[in-house]
Amino acid sequence: MADKANTSQGTGAAPAVDSPAAIRNVVLVGPSGSGKTTLVEALLVASGVLNRPGTVLDGTTVCDFDDAEIRQQRSVGLSLASLPHDGGQGKVKINLIDTPGYADFVGELRAGLRAADCALFVISASEGVDEPTRTVWQECDQVGMPRAVVITKLDHARANHQNALSTAQAAFGDKVLPLYLPAGDGLIGLLSQSYFEYAGGKRSVAAPDPSYAGQIEELRGTLIEGIIEESEDESLMDRYLGGEEIDQKVLIDDLERAVARGSFFPVIPVCSASGVGTLELLEVITSGFPSPLEHKLPDVFTPHGVARQGLTCDTAGPLLAEVVKTTSDPYVGRVSLVRVFSGTIRPDATVHVSGHFTSFFGDHDGASHGHEDHDEDERIGSLSFPLGKTQRPAGQVIAGDLCAIGRLTRAETGDTLSDKADPLLLRPWNMPEPLLPIAVQAHAKTDEDKLGAGLQRLAAEDPTLRIEQNPETHQIVLWCMGEAHSDVVLDALSNRYGVTVDTVELRVPLRETFGGPAKGHGRHVKQSGGHGQYAVCDIEVEPLPGGSGFEFVDKVVGGAVPRQFIPSVEKGIRAQMEKGVGAGYPMVDIRVTLRDGKAHSVDSSDMAFQMAGGLALREAAAATKVAMLEPVDLVSVLVPDDLVGAVMSDLSGRRGRLLGTDKVGENRTLVKAEVPQVEITRYSIDLRSLSHGSASFTREFARYEPMPESIASKLK
Ligand SMILES: Nc1nc2c(ncn2[C@@H]2O[C@H](COP(=O)(O)OP(=O)(O)O)[C@@H](O)[C@H]2O)c(=O)[nH]1
Ligand SMILES: [Mg+2]
């Protein structure tokens, strides 16, 4: 990987600051391909961290450094790049958190939102806004996260800035207003009414071309009104409407306050290719976006679940930090990306690691993700400020900042780090449930242990990966967010752990039961030469109601089956039930009555009666119909109202039984149905394409039900 290093990277030391007030944590959000990763390159160049930008195409960007990212030419994980910017009011450190736009990697986006205090919504001038991005905007709305919109790719052949702007306003609301108008090789500032021209990587200021006068006036009017509406000074609107020219400084102050409050969202046009707009964007980030001091901390508890109040973004406060991402580097080992909420982390310190306390956070059960509960001390290895994969040593890391910690062996993604003497635990952030099951096996049998170990490590790093070892189907099932996610997991298994993995057809854990009562005669007799075997038994089998399991009744009279061999018959029947009698699925919900049998004084044995028991069950099964039972899930789908019909008819087509619908919020509906598991193994993919990513669903096991004969017969 070293040979692919971005050789154009500047040698600049990591920007360090001594106050949270000088930090901005900014997450980049937007559709896949909208230009986020390239924008980070452009901003790094604008701030002098890089001499020249890398490209996604060549795999030379700072943020897309992972093997999978270079191969796929798109981001699959979040990454961090920090840069210093001095906009004239002192040096500010900007931590840019690049996230993948593709839906499979939404777990990385969630982690990015958690680590950040403000968000840039990056929209391509040639495309627009997709459904998932709208949803993230609404989520940001709910928590009042400050946001700005960047319209990228101004130079694109199909770029249409005006269109992209209207799309963004339609999607995000009327508080989304442009601060600049793209013009020629630069931008016109609508407040300053100056033309910022970019030539040869430098910005110069001039008067705008008079031909823009009309456009400027119109947009400027809308912008000023928008700002004044947000102003806390109520007299301002009257003065403005009365014809007073409002001082630009007053407007800028009001604008910045409204942006920081999360009630006004400036739009900045950018061309990453030429650098146009990068300095303007850095100015919005440094002066409009709030520092971590203004961000309310997530809920804090002690590991025993007692709420802890009063923690703030104080560098001298108790240590409170969180692992937002974990990666493994073949050379460096484990690297944990950490957001510090309170206190200061120093190298060589010992910290307390706590995490995944299912008992009092309920729902997000770490256990099902293959995570362990943590409550232990661990020493910090190296401390650094990452620039993509490059680690720049950090002397210390203060509250509000982001950093990488090397060689933590216990801490996993989502864990809280705190003082050894004052253990704390943060309420976990909302992680998405993986809903696509992929069954896998090691290509070589000898690799099975390596596969298990590799999967465990990957699941510890990635909270959106769940590993299931199914005891009924004996399959290893990876629960993933989608196929692109599973590809990344399989790639990592082969590249990092050297295990070649085959995906195999997923077996849904079906079960068998008797369709009706039947009798079975089991005769296991071998008396020719050597030690003889002799056992005969007669059984009656009846189906029991669902969920009854297995009942064994002994009705033998007169010692036809000797006492000591009755448990042998039962054992043989149980063993046969585990293997099944039809398609090889375990048999459940039957009562077996042992009626009669025969024994031989010398040749009968425990083993012989076990064999006879199994045989008797097979015979009984052959005499009647074996019915298949299938697991049925309760599926809840959250959809925009206009898709309710489409989703319901799709569910019906999957043999789903509709239970009802509930209105959720203004324009969403929750559709509930019971659907057989075999019909929804790929539902996450199908629902995404049916709804263009606007719907989500959950599923939970409800019960086993008889499978229709027409479908069961195909399995045998
Ligand atoms: N013409 C042009 N192409 C761009 C610009 N920014 C990004 N791209 C291209 O758009 C594609 C997607 O960019 P990328 O940064 O990976 O988008 P992301 O998925 O949002 O990170 C890449 O091929 C980039 O080279 C830009 O400003 N102008
Ligand atoms: Mg990207």
UniProtKB/TrEMBL annotation:
Keyword Protein biosynthesis: yes
TM spans (from-to): none
Record domain Tr-type G: where: 21-293
GO molecular function: translation elongation factor activity
Name under which the protein is recorded: Translation elongation factor 2 (EF-2/EF-G)
Record carries keyword Nucleus: no
NCBIfam families referenced in this protein's UniProt entry, alphabetically: PRK12740.1-1, PRK12740.1-5, small_GTP
Keywords carried by this UniProt record: Elongation factor, GTP-binding, Nucleotide-binding, Protein biosynthesis
